[in-house]
Write a structure and sequence with these properties.
- This protein is mainly β.
- Strands 6-7-9-10 form a 4-stranded antiparallel beta sheet, with no helix packed on it. Strands 40-42-43-44 form a 4-stranded antiparallel beta sheet, with no helix packed on it.
Length: 448
């Protein structure tokens, strides 16, 4: 009688142990939006947990675990934080382009009224957790450029700095001549005069250009005509467009030699050949070797040859950049933007967690030239093939099974139970529901 009594005690203890576990509450069973994650995955009976709202939201929840169920003691749903009025800008208006009210995430776009232009680099404000970002944009009155005339023309009006709507009137000094164009022009809302004006016929002749030649050369060029020219190989046109004006071409058409400048010569650089040279002509090359912790910008090479092209640009950027690893957004890492927000240079080790249903493949991730190692950082949680004495799995057998997979096995002839037994791979990668195959002289046991 001693053996059955011990067995009965073991079964009673096992039942009690599992009943305690069934009283636990899991964080995965809480479905409130816009809340911050908590540290533990489960809580015992009687424990409480506070759920704080995510950045930009106000409110909170307090829950208590009661016999495996969450009970809410405090419930203030997470709502978007409100911002005050974003502010009116003189001579401008604003409109909501994101959201329907002044709450977290809403964006307002500022525009200037007719005759005014935006002088601020940023023309919108967004409601953040701490209030509106950016400063209030500024609208300044549109100004048209100053008017310059020759001695044969008189201009009346604000010729130095015309404002929107201002009118300039032109008259000829001599009654024997007339304005070659519009007599009246006005300053438009875009800051440009409505019409150009001309007073006398102006002409230019084609110049001689060293290391270049004029395209479609003409005997005579009228006022405001553009001179088209090209340069010999290894040379490039000077910036700007030559136009025919009263005193000749507005820009002296010249061909400058094409060169590329090597600006970065020390940062991350181990060796440069030819050494000491920073200015290169078109077609010339330079070789750069980076140090062990650097590689060529936007490549994974530590050595590369760079050539100055005909347009004065390098074929590739000749810069050594520090080796860095990207944030592993596609490797099932939990909150990768948080854990991998700091230093990501070569050799750095970062502690991390994996998302649900995945398990870490290393204690820490290490930044290498080939990215984060190990690769992958997170592997799918799986159960190994169960080893059940005196039993055979029904159907196809695999080496690993996904979470929640179910399989059946049968005891061999002469062992019990005779009916197939179904077991399940749980979230802790353990098989539940196993019953031992017993035969004559073996005590019957079961495993949850």
């Amino acid at each position: 009688m001693r053996v059955p009594v011990k067995l009965l005690g073991f079964v009673f203890w096992l039942f009690s142990f599992n009943c305690v576990r069934c009283q636990e509450c899991r964080i995965a069973d809480i479905n409130y939006e816009n809340t911050e994650p908590v540290a533990k995955e489960s809580y015992n009976d009687g424990e409480t947990v506070r759920l704080s709202c995510a950045t930009g939201f106000t409110g909170m929840y307090r829950l208590k675990c009661e016999k495996g169920q969450w009970k809410t003691s405090i419930e203030r749903p997470c709502a978007k934080k409100k911002c005050s009025h974003p502010g009116d800008t003189p001579n401008g208006d604003f409109s909501l382009i994101s959201g329907s009210e002044f709450v977290f995430g809403a964006t307002v776009l500022y525009t200037c009224k007719k005759g005014f232009e935006m002088t601020s680099r940023i023309n919108q404000r967004t409601c953040r957790a701490q209030g509106w970002d950016n400063t209030l944009p500024i609208c300044k009155a549109v100004r048209c450029p100053a008017i310059r005339t020759d001695e044969d023309v008189i201009a009346s009006g604000n010729t130095e700095e015309g404002g929107y709507g201002d009118v300039i009137h032109f008259e000829c000094v001599s009654n024997d001549t007339k304005i070659d164009g519009s007599s009246d022009i006005n300053c438009t809302e875009t800051g440009e005069w409505s019409h150009p004006f001309q007073s006398a016929k102006i002409t230019c002749t084609a110049p001689d250009i060293p290391n270049g030649d004029v395209v479609e050369k003409m005997q005579e060029y009228q006022k405001d005509a553009i001179l088209k020219y090209r340069c010999s190989p290894g040379f490039k046109p000077r910036e700007g467009i030559p136009r025919c004006a009263k005193f000749g071409w507005t820009l002296n058409p010249e061909c400058d030699e094409v060169t590329c400048e090597l600006k970065s010569t020390t940062f991350g650089v181990k060796k440069i050949y030819p050494e000491g040279k920073t200015i290169f002509r078109a077609g010339e090359s330079v070789e750069i070797t980076c140090t062990e912790k650097h590689w060529i910008f936007q490549t994974k090479e530590t050595f590369k040859s760079f050539t100055c092209r005909e347009n004065g640009q390098w074929d590739y950027e000749p810069v050594c950049a520090e080796i860095r690893c990207e944030v592993p957004y596609d490797q099932h890492v939990s909150r990768p933007g948080y854990y991998f927000s700091g230093d990501k240079t070569l050799g750095v080790k970062i502690f991390y967690y994996c998302t649900d249903r995945y398990v870490k493949t290393a204690e820490k991730a290490t930044c290498t030239r080939d990215g984060w190692t190990p690769n992958p950082l997170c592997a799918v949680k799986m159960c190994a093939t169960p080893n059940i004495p005196n039993a055979e799995i029904v159907g196809d057998q695999r080496t690993h099974y996904n979470i929640n997979s179910r399989i059946q096995y049968k005891c061999r002839p002469g062992f019990e139970p005779e009916q197939p037994v179904q077991i399940t791979c749980n979230s802790q990668t353990e098989w539940t529901g196993i019953r031992q195959c017993t035969g004559p002289g073996f005590p019957k046991r079961s495993y949850l």
